[in-house]
Amino acid sequence: MGHLLKVDALYKSYGKEPVLEDFNMQADRGEIIGLVGENGAGKSTLLRIIATLNRPTDGEVYIDEQSYGKNYKKLRRKIGYVPQEIELWEELSVIENMRFFEKLSHENRSVPELKNLLSELHLEKYDTKVSRLSGGMKRKLNLAISLIHEPELLLLDEPTSGIDLKSRIEIGKFLKGLAGKGALIIYTSHDMTEIRELCDRTIFIGKDPFYKNILTDG
Ligand SMILES: Nc1ncnc2c1ncn2[C@@H]1O[C@H](COP(=O)(O)OP(=O)(O)OP(=O)(O)O)[C@@H](O)[C@H]1O
């Protein structure tokens, strides 16, 4: 069987200068991959293209050997995406947010199932209004929402930025568990210690060799 994800000769420009130029990668189920590069290197752009939220200028993305082309609506169901910015209903409670996004997803999940997912992430304040949660808890909730439809491919844009150490460790353990069950996780972070601890391999993106050197120097 082919790779779960294949990115082939991807090119993206917003203006004259390309952000991504002939970018290629393959990845398989069970991997945790760290995307590393300077600010503005194109990490979020790449994740958004893989998440079907942004279109490449040229090149193609495949999931299970099916190209995004005509299949992107179907393939989108296999993908979970957590953006850098937190996107939640502040005036609703934790469980109300989960129920809202469950209705938007293509899967039916019961309230006990949703609560179970929250508790796996150590987020048991089901009835607390989101506006009263800490930044770290909001990030966990965003992550839980992206997992409602049990995606095979999970794309995380700086999921632990601004998160305390305990939550960071909890999220790391949780992600390793997900990968152990066969999910592919692609992850951006500026924290090299975290990347080294969590990721099976790293992919350098961008022009600044500083990052490439950090990775190869060990
Ligand atoms: N919608 C857009 N329109 C125009 N330019 C954009 C757009 N989105 C991103 N860019 C530009 O593309 C480049 C790559 O941005 P991107 O957010 O993908 O980088 P990044 O590696 O995720 O950066 P960071 O580490 O700061 O999050 C930047 O120069 C950015 O200004």
TrEMBL record:
Keywords for this protein: ATP-binding, Nucleotide-binding, Transport
Domain ABC transporter: 5-218
GO terms, molecular function: ATP binding; ATP hydrolysis activity
Transmembrane intervals: none
Listed CDD domains: ABC_DR_subfamily_A (cd03230)
Gene3D superfamilies xrefs: P-loop containing nucleotide triphosphate hydrolases (3.40.50.300)
Similarity annotation: Belongs to the ABC transporter superfamily.
Protein's recorded name: ABC-2 type transport system ATP-binding protein
Organism: Lacicoccus qingdaonensis
